[in-house]
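We emphasize that the prediction below concerns an isolated chain of 95 residues; any contacts that depend on oligomerization or on bound cofactors are therefore not represented. The input was used exactly as deposited, without trimming of termini.
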Amino acid sequence: MSAQPAEHGHGGGFGLPPMNTVRELRAALRAGHGYPGDAERLDAELAEQLLRRVPVDRLGQVPAVVDLVAVAEIVAAYRSRVLLAAARTARRPGP
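Result of the prediction step, given as a token string:
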């Protein structure tokens, strides 16, 4: 089953950059979208899931080297944080 376009991380009416890939999401966070520290936390959480180093001769003893569901959940959570931060900023009354 493939993702439908509505499931992708478009910026919507908030003028946000595209967030359809991890690279685009990271760029949006580094550009100041989202909450302070989110870019660093995203990198740390992804590293925890993706950068496990397991010796090749022990791969059969490891239940899962990369949990792709966990990676997808991390990405979705940070994409949501960007959207929430943008919505919160849009609701603030002007000076």
